[in-house]
Amino acid sequence: MSDAERAEVTIVGGGLVGASLALALASRQFDVSLIESTPFGAPSQPSFDERTTAISNGTRRVFEALGVWPLIARAATPIKRIHVSDRGRFGFARIEASEQGVQALGYVLPNRVIGAALWRLLQQAAVRVLAPARVTGVAVDTERRRLDVVAGDDTHVCDARLVVAADGARSLVRESAGVGATVWDYDQTAIVTNIATQRFHDYVAYERFTGDGPIALLPLSDGRCGVVWTLAPARAEEVLALDDDEFAAALFDAFGTRLGRFLKVGQRDAYPLALTRADEHVASRLAVVGNAAQGLHPIAGQGFNLGLRDAASLAEVLVDAQRAAREVFDPGAPEVLERYRQWRADDRRRIVAFTDGLVRAFSNPFGPVKLLRSLAMLTFDLSPGAKQALSRLSLGAAGRVPRLARGAPL
Questions:
Q1: Number of domains present in the structure of the chain
Q2: Which domain holds residue 39?
Q3: DSSP code of 6?
């Protein structure tokens, strides 16, 4: 990339969050470059794998504003009810979309559908994309941050007034800027697959806590359910070694009879689980978003929604700063990045505490704790105010909400 191709903003990481940020900034005529290590559409690209993502209504509004939603709406399955239970205990809790005054509490989508839509729009947008490419070196001065990039047999020097680290929990760009991360290993593995069930899911998302770990079943558009089954690593290895019929029987034994028998199992994948939290959201001419800023346990389905609010918040801060600039606009100016840092701190604190608290509370085998869990769930199920508060939190409506997540333009 020559000096003439210098960007205002370079985003490293073209997954769901990085690509969404690139589209948001391009829609406001920012000069944007996007660097992605994996070819778009490749099976190894996380945005195109077989995992499913539960998106909040705030995330749906962001996708509507970016023009993504019309491309993915047909594949989106609404969540009309959430049912939470603790196996072997009397407690349970339910949240109904109708009680909260919304058509759906959220939607479930295959990652590959979202990724394909984002890539299609990126091809039409004024975004310079370098993929597959990897960053091999980083340097910074007072005015720009420089990236050494290898793409095939070619080497490039890419520099920008602002670099955005969107390259995952083990972000090279974040670490190269001296921003560390705290990692808490949950000593758990998530088995991800999809299943066909004897009974229709009726648009209910289930969270079932068991002695071995939580099981989430999410409704899919073709009547199947997406599965996230959390187990201790050794037990996960045993379960992965089962054939499809044995796996379906083991899952049925753990989950129960609410959906009848499990008839057919899709491809299974496994992912180790940890809480990763970057020490800061910013450094000199650097902003950190998505999993590079925080990687969460999937127990509450909040990781992607929180990461997309990072992107929507950063886009709003940059657009507002651009409008307010009297002379030359500098997206990487310290005062601009400080506004982004302050905004994201509270949202991340709330969601991390909520998600991590659930993991710890439902991983505790102590008898009195199990009793308190059941009582807490029953109390919650009888409390409209508590349901409304949790609904606001899970919908991304707690604290300051980005304009895009409210359905307003940048």
A1: 1
A2: 3-75+110-183+275-365+402-406
A3: -
